[in-house]
Amino acid sequence: MSNVKKPKNRPSNANFSSGPCAKRPGWTPDILSNALVGRSHRSNPGKRRIQEVIDKTRLVLEIPENYRIGIVAGSDTGAVETALWSMLGARGVDMLQWESFGKGWVGDVIDQLNLKDIKELKAEYGKLPNLKDVDFARDVVFTWNGTTSGVRVPNADWIPDDREGLTICDATSAAFAMRLTWSKLDVTTYSWQKVMGGEAQHGILVLSPRAVERLESYTPAWPLPKIFRLTSGKKLNETIFKAATINTPSMLCIEDALDGLNWAISIGGLKALIKRSEENLAELTRWIENSKDIEFLAEDPETRSCTSVCLKITADWFLKLNNKKRIDASKRIVELLDEEKVAYDIGSYRDAPPGLRIWSGATIENSNLKALTPWIDWALVEVSLEYEA
Ligand SMILES: Cc1ncc(COP(=O)(O)O)c(C=O)c1O
């Protein structure tokens, strides 16, 4: 094992967590000084502020005019559960899962909703299920970007325009960093805490006209808590999608989300956000391709995430360890980088294979990834010495 000198240059921002994600460059708490705190979200100024978030979301994400955009409670989880509980059960469901979050949705649908006609399409960490096996006569639930494996669907070409079922897509670590093809998506969800670095606890639910049709033509067999209820008397409750949220949102979070959207607009919109994330992935790819000790967990380059980059450690000393020791060694690397204040929260997700996960979404500066990678090389050598001793 060659000696690697401790690098001198540190990232100017060491936040590489996969959620809550780094704030946008230049963010300070001062941006919240105009927040409508202490005012009713149902006052005219309150509603105008919420509507501005919806309008700018449509603008930045290029969402068609006939799609509804709603702010719901409970972050992305709240948005996904609202959709699953409100819409599933009308037909059989194909559920795709290739990492922890997708797996979680399957568990909910089978164990909580008790749906029987479920087909699971699974793949292990690092792979995608065969997208050709999906039956679009059924409803389809999938995650656009599997945050815990760093595997994304390459595009939406596998989804037919003339599908009979609905597509329900958890896009929380994809929205604002990957191009979502709206004509292929009936329900899309995400949370503010991801690519835009907003505050957590609010989810966004985007509905196609076909999703609305389902809500108005189908009533699930189970009771729906108020927080999930999108209809009233078999009609869509349109007000939810016009700034009258089901319950009270945080006006601080609204302000923060607006700041993120204004930043996105100021740098050139979706194209610029995607470019930032893709260039970050390219930066990490250059480093990985030159390293013997690190590899992508995602096997197919087409499926490699440009937001949650998940890495395997392939150094000889590491591969000689048993799984428990691999987990300990990965944790040591993460701790060391944290102690050095060069990277926070970059351990792989608890259910994923031991390794690293580096957030590279649009708020991450390329220069900070460039500064980070020599530190990882250094930490790998430092920790190897503990294990080779
Ligand atoms: C793919 C995916 N789905 C759902 C969630 C849960 O999101 P939230 O905590 O915003 O509800 C996450 C969080 O990391 C995620 O990555």
Question: Any overview of this molecule?
Answer:
- It is a single chain.
- The chain is α/β, with parallel strands linked by helices.
- Helices cover 35% and strands 15% of the residues.
- It has 9 helices and 14 strands.
- The protein has a 7-stranded mixed beta sheet with strand order 1-9-8-7-4-2-3, sandwiched between helices.
- β5 (145-146) and β6 form a beta hairpin.
- α5 (251-267) crosses α6 (269-289), α6 (269-289) packs parallel to α9 and α8 crosses α9.
- The longest helix is centred in the C-terminal third of the chain and has 23 residues, at 366-388.
- The radius of gyration is 22 Å and the shape is globular.
- The two termini are 12 Å apart.
- The mean pLDDT is 97.
- It binds pyridoxal-5'-phosphate.
- Pyridoxal-5'-phosphate (PLP) binds next to α2.
- Residues 19, 75-77, 101, 143, 147, 170, 172-173, 191, 193, 200 line the site of pyridoxal-5'-phosphate.
- Tally the helices: 9
Largest sheet, strands/sense/barrel = 7 strands, mixed
Q: Tell me the series of helices and strands, N- to C-terminal.
A: HEHEHEEEEEEEHEEHHEEHHEH
**What ligands are attached or bound here?**
pyridoxal-5'-phosphate
Strand order of the largest sheet: 1-9-8-7-4-2-3
- The best one-word shape is globular
As residue ranges, the low-confidence spans are none
Helix content: 25-40%
According to DSSP, the number of beta strands is 14
SS-derived structural category:
alpha/beta
Question: What is the rounded Rg?
Answer: 22 Å
